[in-house]
Amino acid sequence: MGVTALSPALSLGEGSTPLVPAARLSDALGFELHLKLEGSNPTGSFKDRGMVVAVARAASAGARGVVCASTGNTAASAAAYAARAGLEAVVLTPAGGTASAKRAQARAAGARVLELRGSFDDALRLARELGARPGFVLVNSVNPDRIEGQKSVAHELVEQLGAAPDVVALPFGGGGNVTAVALGLREAGAGSRIVVGQAAERATTWASAIRIAEPAHAEGVAALVDAGHLEVVTLSEDELGTWWRRLATEEGAFCEPASAAGVAALARLGLPSDQVAVAILTGHGLKDTDAVDQGAGTVIEPTLEAILEELG
Known about the structure:
The chain is of the alpha/beta class. It has helices spanning 7-10, 23-29, 47-60, 73-85, 100-108, 120-131, 144-150, 152-161, 176-187, 218-226, 237-251, 261-269, 304-311, and strands at 19-21, 32-37, 65-69, 88-94, 112-116, 136-138, 167-171, 193-199, 230-235, 276-281. Helix 3 packs across helix 7.
């Protein structure tokens, strides 16, 4: 996996996330569905698998710090592992474009979070420029060490399932995780088809983790499509919202909105009843609590009678 000798010291226990059957959604969709809960990683998203490798490599190379552009999850992960390594973390985000919980994670770990009057693409361009200067290492997924770490999810889900699934589904934002999953499946000897869901409104989608207008790995993803290994499904905001809610209310799988893109893509396509699919839920719901309607609960008198009356 490209893990350096420093990685064990930096590990926060990333990987080995649950793979759970989704019985109710399987019945609704008409095929066997399992959920890979990447929100169980230390900072709440799949990013930790690759970040521990990238930061370990940066530390072993004598870097002063790491830099990333982020819609939130990369920032939280980079900040945590940089703190473990004793490195500075510089995070560039589009102003107002990230979930508050993710910014809080990064700041809590001591990162310098700089919000730009621009897009994620502006942030990535500037992160690349800073990463090219002496002392800083870019830890976005264009860093191959990130891909080396993230591919472990594919090996892991095949091992947990006991066989390669027919289909693996996940969100498509920048394309780094798609690239990593494809590499991992190939290394595992799995011929699984990959399905990814992207937002039709890429630059403005409510699913902030995939709010990326110009995917950094667009060429690699296009090559996978051309080779017949990958299908891209473009989703409406309503589709993303519907399946995000259904994952929580029907399976108890509270994920951030972008994480529902894989399941939404599967629902759009449909699969034969004898097929087995794994949907990778990339981040925990607590990463983006702003997405939840948190209106005031029902206030009642502190009596059993009042409770029973409310329950009908």
